[in-house]
Amino acid sequence: DIRHTATPDMVGPNYIAEIKTSTKPVRQTLARYYDQLQWQLHVTDYELVLFVVENRSTKHIEHEVVERDRKRIELLVDAANEMLDQL
């Protein structure tokens, strides 16, 4: 659907990447951005996203590779299409 758009921070040959700053560890930050990552995977048709978090205080960098979650994407697409149809 051309109405579905996303802006990942990086696009590579094998995966996309999203970079955040936070005071929380990567796993806690991932929970907050999980839907955004799944939406980016849907729009770009990639299977993997590299999620990178830099701790604002310590500058420590952590990362996690996140796989496509087809069931979650299906729910997000349904919700987005319902909203877009109402615009």
The number of helical runs is 2
Taking the sheet with the most strands, its summary is: 4 strands, mixed
Run of helices and strands: EEHEEH
> How far do the termini sit from each other?
15 Å
Give the strand order of the largest sheet, numbering strands 1, 2, ... along the chain: 1-2-3-4
Task: State the total count of DSSP E strands.
Answer: 4
Uncertain stretches: none
Determine the oligomeric state from the structure.
Answer: single chain
- Report the radius of gyration as a whole number of Å: 14 Å
Global geometry: elongated
Q: What average pLDDT do the residues reach?
A: 97
* Portion in helices: 40-55%
Structural class of the secondary elements? Answer: alpha+beta
Strand content: 25-35%
